[in-house]
Prior knowledge:
DNA-binding, disordered N terminus, 3-stranded antiparallel beta sheet, alpha+beta
Amino acid sequence: xxxxxxxxxxxxxxxxxxxxxxxxxxxxxxxxxxxxxxxxxxxxxxxxxxxxxxxxxxxxxxxxxxxxxxxxxxxxxxxxxxxxxxxxxxxxxxxxxxxxxxxxxxxxxxxxx
Amino acid sequence: xxxxxxxxxxxxxxxxxxxxxxxxxxxxxxxxxxxxxxxxxxxxxxxxxxxxxxxxxxxxxxxxxxxxxxxxxxxxxxxxxxxxxxxxxxxxxxxxxxxxxxxxxxxxxxxxx
DNA sequence: CCAGATGTACGATGACCGTCGTACAATCAA
DNA sequence: TTGATTGTACGACGGTCATCGTACATCTGG
Lengths: 113, 113
């Protein structure tokens, strides 16, 4: 139930994510260029799955959904369904493989910002 | 009027560049999120000054001017006038001080394409 | 002085983006 | 079943963006 082990983290994947090799740098940079989305990604930086509602943001639910979709379609995050909740997590491994160091550098820059 | 640049490289600086500490991460990422601008920055990555016309791009002069202004106002590049030419160069030092590793990582990612 | 080269300024246009409200679907607990 | 929770879908609205054409300003070389 509260299991977040690796083996259970892809039970109900959400479609619309690009394959690792199809992740585009421009799309990733654009996704990260919005302050709200950057904040979302920063919150996901701990490697833990977060739901839409578990991240305090100055926007409505609709807008939150929109931003998470942008991040997903850019290949920045992974989403999976669990009950009524949608769990979001960073695609750290894929991003590191495709654009080594990028995510970490941006997150560090955001923290310094 | 004194400046910190070598005398030959700042004879006619162009206004509208943010101070180092005023460079915003969102603005930088947005500036780099356009494929044309990313290509421009990649060409400037050799550390050499380039003019608008010396970079082959699939856009008109007007659009080129527009993109260089976006990069300048985001704090990514420095521009100086020399005759009828406007010389563009990366603000590598400022960017490295403000967001360590960011520019290099993005350029490497762009090269990996 | 004049013609060419370099680049800007300005306006227009079509597309995209961020935001929201409302309505709706799915799940879980009582 | 009923109600609460969680999030999506859809449409709308205003703002921003990328692109271009045209006109203009500035410098340079004959």
